[in-house]
Design brief:
Length: 103
């Protein structure tokens, strides 16, 4: 089941909690993507240097597999890594579209 979330609320909570909500959001989205067929490893890798880069790649790979089939996982990984502030907007927008379709 995909949860529709407000982008404004996502960013406001992320700012107010000094980024902690973004980590919570990543955990929730990872669970949703995995339930839809992605294979994203445990979020504990987020707190381990270097392993967090691997985790982000696997997240991008899962995002592409579930929501953007046929597109490049490497492109999304680089986008998420280099311009990380827009990553939640991209991912949540796609999840919201899926939720509206009933996915």
């Amino acid at each position: 089941m995909v949860t529709k979330r407000s982008l404004l609320k996502l960013y406001l909570l992320g700012i107010v909690t000094l980024g902690i909500y973004f980590i919570y959001w990543l955990v929730m989205v990872k669970r949703e993507l995995n339930s839809l067929g992605a294979n994203i490893p445990t979020c504990w890798l987020l707190i381990i240097p270097i392993a967090n880069i691997y985790w982000l790649y696997k997240f991008a790979e899962g995002f592409v597999k579930v929501l953007k089939p046929g597109e490049s996982a490497v492109l999304y990984f680089l986008l998420f890594w280099l311009v990380s502030i827009i990553m939640p907007a991209i991912v949540q927008s796609e999840l919201n579209k899926l939720a509206e379709r009933g996915g």
